[in-house]
Task: structure prediction
Amino acid sequence: MSAPRRIAVLQIAAIVAALLASLTVGAAAIPLHTLLAAPFVGDADTWLILREIRLPRALLALAIGAGLGMSGAALQALLRNPLAEPGVVGISSTAAFGAVLAFYSGLSYTLPLALPLGGLAGALAGTLLMLRLTRGTGASLALILAGVALTTFASAGTSLVLSLAPNPYAAYEIIFWLMGSLADRSLAHVALAVPFIVVGLALLMYAARDLEALALGEDSARSLGVDVARLKLAVVVGTALAVGPGVAVAGFIGFVGLLVPHALRPFVGARPARLLPQCALGGALATLVADIACRLVPTLGELKLGIVTALLGAPFFLWLLTRERSLHA
Result:
């Protein structure tokens, strides 16, 4: 068995183990055999906990992590920059801004799914603006600058909404949501986000082989028949679909798209056709394990998932910056 296949098998096994652990860990620990038997023995309380609380949370962790991991690998290949991650195209920020507007307008109190729907609308608007700003150009610099512009605008809008919040409790609620969490999510959130994420993953995999040609340079890729502008369109739209819905239902979960490709590249190589599916598995595993850690750390309240991933990712990001600086010194 080749090394990439071994890594994939190991990751799948670890995901299954983490999924089972996720279903048993919570405010009240429930033995695995009790959870698995609940639907068949009429244990209504245990089945309710499994169906309404723990299963949606685990499924969202897997889907959101897969989207973040694969998007990070695709953007690093597209921009040929090891520091690229999903936030670079601005979709995460615009999705968060859309959700914050749903908070501020009061829709989140009258319509149960207003928050994720607002996030999806923000992600869609950000994608359309990104395509508008980069239309007619295949330059990676244009993509980065458009992403910076979108992120700056969305962050400013979010700060404005926070400053205009009618009371401090509304501001606190927005801030807590922005920290990122999978607590209290339902199967309705799963049904809303996962189909978009799956389509985004499929679109990124479709672009994987052209990304391999792009590694030789844009001129070489064009000589091999790759439409660079269409490739960048596919990656941007795929990233928006894979990342935006996750932000819409869970808030910011950072650094997964940066960490996972770097962790897997030494084992599976840098070819996007091999790396992208491995990063989907790695992102799913990393997000699920981080979510389990949120529940296990003994604190007064449950830690936010975005805080855990940031605490792990920020030092790694600083190390990458230091290494890149030393390599180019």
